[in-house]
């Protein structure tokens, strides 16, 4: 199922947070959004997810306007992981993950098997009976990702994730992005906000660069992640080399200035 947005514009308190942005998320593709802090990345994800209404522009999920879908219908087709996942109750880890499967309407036995599979895929089996509030930040983030992925059924074909691996160690960053890559390869349309250029190059099919509320560039990963594009995006000097056909990145302040 394709998620498509046209001319998205969003303002808050007189400030434009997103200006005339077009996005197409195709089945079978993993798109990464890159940009500096405050560029509009989270605003874009919130609009694509229907968590905010645009001041201009439209979002379509398949052949339907997203705004016309009720919350259950949307949850059966689109799964979202925001940056902030407030949970102040002492739920067990398995209970948290099971919350994600609710829209699928599975029977109790099938639901538990479904959620246990995601616990295993994200290496959470040993934590399944732990109190969620006792976990580290990276562990909590992995549990929340498992909850979102447990929402994926036969109809859930779009995934939107805002910095889903930012608190994780290197091993689990790769483990979780491998799962997202596998879902895309199986036909899902996946959008992920990241800050890591190396992870982007390793897992993305397409890249969208956002700066100051507007699209700087978007397209195929290898075409977009060039020194000129990335230097302009982050206002630093970015150099790109190739190892076995894959880009490798280094960066420095443009003037090599050393702060006093």
Automatic annotation (TrEMBL):
Keyword ATP-binding: yes
Protein's UniProt name: Heme ABC transporter ATP-binding protein
GO molecular-function term, one example from the UniProt record: ATP binding
Keywords: ATP-binding, Nucleotide-binding, Translocase, Transport
Annotated PROSITE patterns: ABC_TRANSPORTER_1 (PS00211), ABC_TRANSPORTER_2 (PS50893)
Pfam families, per database record: ABC_tran
Classification via CDD domains: ABC_Iron-Siderophores_B12_Hemin
Domain of life, per lineage: Bacteria
SMART domains per record: AAA
Record organism: Marinobacterium rhizophilum
Keyword ATP-binding: yes
Domain ABC transporter: 3-237
UniProt xrefs under InterPro entries: AAA+_ATPase, ABC_transporter-like_ATP-bd, ABC_transporter-like_CS, P-loop_NTPase
Record's function text: Part of the ABC transporter complex HmuTUV involved in hemin import. Responsible for energy coupling to the transport system.
